[in-house]
Amino acid sequence: MFRYIIRRLIAGVITLLVVTLVTFGIFFMVPKLTGTDPALLYTGKQTDKVAIEGARKKMGLDKPVIEQYGLFVKGLVVGRDYDDGPDKTHCPAPCFGYSFKNQFNVWQRMLSDLPVTASLAVGAAVIWLILGVGAGIISALRKGRAIDRAVMTGALAGVSLPIYFTGLLSASIFVYTLNWLPSPGYSPFLQNPLTWAQGLILPWITLAFLFAATYARLTRATMLETLSEDYIRTARAKGLRERTVIGKHALRSTLTPITTVFGLDLGALLGGAVLTETVFNLNGLGKDAVLAISTSDLPVILGVTMFAAFFIVLANLIVDVLYGVIDPRVRLA
Amino acid sequence: MTVKRRAIAAGAAVLAMALLAACGGNKATTTTNSNTGAGFNAAVGKVVNPSTKKGGTLQMWSSQDADSWDPAIGYYAFVWDLNQLYTRTLVTYPAQPGTAGLKLAPDLASAMPDITDGGKTYTFHLRSGIKFDDGTAITSKDIKYGIERIFAQDVLPGGPIYLMGQLDEGQNYPGPYKDKDPAGLKSIETPDDSTIIFHLKAPYADFPYLLAMPGAGPVPQARDTGAKYALKPASSGPYMFQSYEPGKSTVWVRNPNWDPSTDPIRKALPDKINLTITSNADDLDSRLIAGTADIDVGQTGVQSAAQIKVLQNPSLKANTDAPPNGFIRYAAFATTVAPFDNIDCRKAVMYAADHTALQTARGGPIGGGPIAPNMLPPNILGSDTKYDPYNIVQGKPQLDKAKEELQKCGKPNGFSTTIAVRNNKDKEIKSAEALQQSLAAVGIKANIYQYDGKLLSTVIGAPDNVKKNGYGIMIAGWGADWPSGTGYLQPLIDQTFILKNGNYNLPEIKDPQIQSLFQQTALETDPTKAAALYNQMNHIVMEGAYYLPFTYDAALNYRNPRLTNVFVNQAWGMIDFQALGVSDGK
């Protein structure tokens, strides 16, 4: 197991390096190939030659592309210095870059915004797992009955309605009309857990509503398939209680695909729940990404992309390890 | 995203907006607001809720963060307005509604300048008792250093550079970070701590306006951190930075070293000012209407859903203003692209345009602004909103006249052209579509080319590119950097302002009469006499049919009724933020 994890970690690092190369290529090479100058994005309305040259130098665009990438990777390993005029700013390793537009270290910014995204993603994940998997099991066990139809109709609605619809609507009703909830927002858990939960409850529910629908449908389909397996019939024929058949035999088998999807979903969300954070104005990684894209802040776009990729790689690794725990038939090799 | 999915997404968004508009009714207005609204446009030309009551926290919101809090870099209109909280300048605009706000008044200076040497030397004396937030005295050297920073364009790009043009005088001053000469910028003298003298190469009557820009404010050299200065600029005004998180929030608290007796402009009523940046403009509107936000400092207007809700409800509408903000939205004709090298072809478009449709595309009479008949906005002295040489304000296309002009320009059956428009400006795209549709009625086939709006300076702002790609019509907008005819018109019509990149004289007007008038205005220190010259320039531009004006830009903005001292300062083209207070002290 240990060797397997080490091997996967090395593969993960290589994957991340490839991601940096591709992302770097897209954001630094494409403008060059299309004949646009990224430095102009930093100089505002005026196009003073010194300003353009200064921006080009600051961003490293005056150097060959290979050297630019080398400096980026070097920054990840040993850090970099950036010229501020009267002095220099040191960006310590792992230096994911420096936002020249907003004057912040990208890595530090992501670390400070990660708790927001993590609070949102983990809270919503708990809700959607409980509701989605629970609803899927009930639906599978009551197949064809009213409750099954009701759950599947709800799931269809959840999958169909986009977050910017449910988010805006729920805030309008529960916050601004009924005044049942405070305005959504983030405050640190350790500062006041109650305020933390109150501020996030609406984003959690909105996000969970979307994901729970998918999990309900997935659980139902997998459960129905499992329930038709021979070993389930055998278990019932042996006289096992229905609770044991469902809980110990059927559900365990159902969990494998759910774990796969859950790992990827949670990993993707930890890289930034773009729509939910934007709709509810939560200052997490997703909002950073939107802000960076809207202001063409290339170092931040690069950093957020790498951060998101890191979580996907990590989630994949955890899921693969968990397979062996959930399903003894899977052996890690 | 496929067309179908886009359609579904768009439908969902529209449905959400409609439901949002339907939800809430009037209840939200009573959650925290006890005051009744002062009336639609009550803050235009007069003060809403005049008060001297101090205390409380002003809750400002915006869907866009400052481009920079560094006075040398910030260029957004709302950022200049907010700079008044922490940046004082030698002269500034009085905190008054109406045209009174347009006439410069002394701020850090004890009086308006002594102008000598035929208009080439400006001498200012500073007030006594003026201090930075750390208690150190503000001297003339701090003001000189602040201006010198503008020259460090390699480190501090993005702000206005007009002062460089007036003060460099061939020195090629590189800014204070690279300069080795202890004398610094030679065109500025500081014989003592309270005197500063500017030597211009040639008279420039608008020079004091350049000194009213935040970049001309004082910066203490010891606290200058270069590019990072934007994170916590020193304060010479009534508030200082407590915190700033880019893209998230800014908090200002009282500057204990600001002495109100030295400041005739600012009231400094709230104890604290919060600026929250939101990614959801619709949510911001909800907060404004619910009274949990006081004002949107972007002042770009409420979103469609809130606009419907507000305009349908008289009690909500009473908390709104839609003043012209000093911008004109227009189409410019490239005189280097055929057939717009022919004045009659340009006039054909002027007459064929459906001005009401263009106004609707901009957001209608309230959300977009009144139809503009000419190219000088109402906040500029010399403007004449009744001057309408193409009978534009009546709103309808004049197809017969358009066809006559087409005959004259030798294109009786119309012609083909391209309308270039920014892809990130929804209202501009709609304007292009409205223009395209109206031109089709006289046989003018216009293709719309959408380009990345961030690259304006190299797409339509590059004359070679315009000619090469045949952009006959270019949709744009312009607001003056200072409220004078020179500030508004010079970048648009002065041939010496035609640049290889970043050009705003889009038609590439080269008119000797205009150049002669600009030479006269440079010498004219009497605003009334200068106004007559700007009026003449406006006539020349309109007679030449270089620009098709759409609207005097306006936006419907909501103010929380708990706000005091609310008025539109014409110099900023929006609410004067430094004057605001809160009536409930919370």
Automatic annotation (TrEMBL), chain A:
InterPro entries hit by this protein: BPD_transp_1_N, MetI-like, MetI-like_sf
CDD domains given in the database record: TM_PBP2
Domain ABC transmembrane type-1 positions: 114-323
Mode of membrane association: Multi-pass membrane protein
Keyword Transferase attached: no
Regions crossing the membrane: 9-30, 116-138, 150-176, 196-216, 258-280, 300-326
Location(s), subcellular: Cell membrane
GO cellular component, one term: plasma membrane
Primary subcellular site in the record, as a coarse category: membrane
Pfam families for the chain: BPD_transp_1, BPD_transp_1_N
Any GO BP: transmembrane transport
Keywords: Cell membrane, Membrane, Transmembrane, Transmembrane helix, Transport
Protein family: Belongs to the binding-protein-dependent transport system permease family.
Name of this protein: ABC transporter permease
Organism lineage: Bacteria, Bacillati, Actinomycetota, Actinomycetes, Micromonosporales
UniProtKB/TrEMBL annotation, chain B:
GO CC entries: ATP-binding cassette (ABC) transporter complex; periplasmic space
UniProt signal peptide: 1-21
Domain of life of the source: Bacteria
Molecular function via GO: peptide transmembrane transporter activity
An example Gene Ontology biological process: peptide transport
Solute-binding protein family domain ranges (all copies): 103-493
InterPro entries: Peptide/Ni-bd, SBP_5, SBP_5_dom
Keywords: Signal
Pfam families registered for this protein in UniProt: SBP_bac_5
CDD domains: PBP2_clavulanate_OppA2
Protein name as it appears in the record: Peptide ABC transporter substrate-binding protein
